[in-house]
Here is the input.
Amino acid sequence: MSKHQYAMVMDLNKCLGCQTCTMACKKQWTDGDGMEYMYWNNVETRPGKGYPRNWDGIGGGFDRTGHLAPSPLPSAEDYGHAWEYNYEDRLFNGSQKPVMPSGKKQNWGPNWDEDQGQLNGGDSFYFYLPRICNHCTHPACVEACTTKAIYKREEDGIVLIDPERCRGYRHCIQACPYKKIYYNEVLGKSQKCIFCYPRLEQGKVNACAAQCPGRLRFVGLLDDPESPVHKLVLKYKVALGLLPERGTGPNVYYVPPFNPPRATNYGKSLLQDPRIPLGYLRYLFGPQVDDVLRHLEAELKTAQSGGTSELLQLLIGRDAETRYRIVDPETMEVIGPMPTQQLVQVGLINRKQESQR
Amino acid sequence: MIRIVFAGAVMAFAMPVFGQEKPASAANLRVRVAASNAEAKDLLDAKASAWNAAEPINVLLSRTPRVYQTEPTAPRTAPKFEVRAIRSGGNLFVRLQWEDATKNAPQAPAKKSGEGGDAEKIYKRPTGETSSFPDVVALMVPQEPKGAFPSLAMGDKNNPTRIFYWNASRGTQELTSTGRAMQKPAGRDFPHRADHADGKWTVVLQLPNQPDGCPVAFAVWDGEHQDRDGLKFFSIWYVLTDK
Here is the structure.
């Protein structure tokens, strides 16, 4: 269990699906041999099948008894092979055919089902879900790794793979409920999002957050009362983890999407006949999503009627100082103490330790 | 009561029948090592005549207990596994042959080229497969043969082991280990030759010499069934015995 926990909040109401975060991460971290198909950060359209295909339907995480519930390994086709375009033919060899992917016909890839909506009573809905490793409080990958190659950093809760110890057995990939660990066949080792720890150590925010034009990402220590993630997750309670029933305690939190309203429900509450079915949001973010939406709606009404909403000001997040709070190791030491109940809530201590405090 | 007596009678009758199958005696747990003057390049050829003089030993393999939570539950039959050994020129040559209907030796595809620009700069070698595993065989000896058999689970703190590991995708690697999950690459590989034909792997390993009486154990992984790590077939300790 880590002393502190870095976390990220993503406000799904602000995501444009532009993939700038995806490219920022790709250029920074996954530009090497064996990494072409890897997107440590991806943005998928929901309710689509995602990347790798159907990742949320195949298993992973822990079952109700606390045992690992491993899934099958996704195949290379489930991620989608990287493909090339026939630029050479088109630009230099006089081909009249339009620029198209060359080589084998593809049937899946990251962002394959972009912007495909689903009908809900006559209205279509979809939204974007950006995903990185959740740096879980109780990581199934750490539990599954038989070579002790995966560890959770004590100082800040970031989950990393030691490439020296990893032997590419891929138990971790089967165990991860989010399928956010990738196998590098060239190296024979598994690799994953490192929460940009080398950037954090220089006081810089994660590359995906820094490049986000929608300003939807908030970064900081969950146990730092001054951090925006602490405020959004624990003070205002408007950000929820993905698939919480998988039991890993994810530390990437989402402000659930609720817009746009239905064409026909002008003047009605967000929760009355919403465009995005509540059942689907409950599936992704758990039963607390109703309370979150109710809370957000109340804040919106306050703002719309001329009042001030601290929460909405924070969610607008105009500047980097509002959205990020990266602390140096010395500052980390003086943060706290956090109320015991909140420590339990975020998994930094367990019930037994709570009773001993 | 009648049922209990009956069950007991069946047990008493059945036990000797099981016993006749493969009596476990020390004599069965030896790998006879033949001596030869043949050169290394010849002995690495599994068909070299020198191998005819080496006694074939059928090593019995067992499946590891289902301790890994990611292991599928389907029962598996241990492959037939034959070992021959020759000592020559300060090396121990071991020829391992086992049944494996499918050859699994996945390789990452080569770097792409031909779409214009400087291919060397533009292209990286891609990952081709994410759910395939190679066939593997390994041979384990104590780091310092001193009479005690180290733990079969890759040695223990007081009795470290040396593991000679061959992987159909990546070739050979020497490891040292003081127990499960404690293996460390020794930073060395060793000469080998491997061939898959007629539903069998034949792999010849050229190892540093091991003394007469040295314990030796074997393990086999079948990539087709996603065997890796502790998901494998293994032998108990055998003993290298000079003729």
About this structure: The first helix of chain A runs from residue 20 to 29. The radius of gyration of chain A is 21 Å. Chain A has a mean pLDDT of 92.
